Amino acid sequence: MFAKLLNLISLWALPFILIVVLTMGLVKKVPLYEEFTEGAKDGFRVAVRIIPYLVAIIVGVSMLRASGAIDMLAHVMAPVLNKFNVPADTLPLMIVRSLSGSGALGIFSDIASNLGPDSYATKLAAVMVGSSETTFYVLAVYFGAVGISKIRYALIVGLLADLIGIIAAISVCNLMFA
Q1: Confidence at residue 167, expressed as pLDDT on a 0 to 100 scale
Q2: What string of DSSP letters covers 131-162?
């Protein structure tokens, strides 16, 4: 019963929000189409401004993966990782996740297809993807969109949060799956 109610709410939440916003706009006599097109123009301007940041991230991740540096580091770190019950296959994910969501999903997909969906490494990788953020992407896109060039402590805090998320993922997976 409760699951059906949640299903119904999730099904109608977005249409309800759209109807409320449009109705409020009509009641307040806001020119909806003009405001929508103005917002679309602003969105396009932001997209053009952040392209250099996105290209830099994509090139960096591609260089790391193509050079084999990430795989070499995973091989070197394997003995240390094994002490904490962390498969070496997940190290590339830990490194790339802060840089690129699509790169991290590509690595996750490789882990799942090579080791199987029920392997400990795949489960750990799935939890890591869900408990960390694409810090550099977020900083590049959102800070670039509003014109902030000095990231100050945001990078340190973001990377620290990613590290805590990875440690929490390892701890939880060790308790639940190991």
Answers
A1: 95
A2: T---HHHHIIIIIHHHT----TTHHHHHHHHH
Type of residue at 163: L
Query: Using the 8-state DSSP alphabet, how is residue 68 labeled?
Result: T
**Could you give the CA distance from residue 150 to residue 142 in angstroms, rounded to a whole number?**
12
Q: Considering only CA atoms, which of 64, 57, 68 is closest in space to residue 101?
A: 57
Q: What is the pLDDT of residues 164-174, one digit of tens each?
A: 999 999 999 99
| Rounded Cα–Cα distance for residues 174 and 73 (Å) | 23
Q: What pLDDT is stored for residue 144 in this prediction?
A: 77
Handedness of CA 99, 105, 109, 111 (dihedral sign): positive
Both structure tokens of 142: 């959102």
Q: What are the tokens at 82?
A: 């094994």
Distance between CA atoms of residues 62 and 56, nearest Å: 10
Half-sphere exposure of 59 (CA within 13 A, CB side): 6
Task: Look at the chain and count its residues.
Answer: 178
Helices (H) and strands (E) in the chain, counts: 9, 0
Query: What's the pTM?
Result: 0.68
Interhelix angle for 32-67 vs 69-83, to 10°?
80
CA angle 60, 61, 65 (to 5 degrees): 120
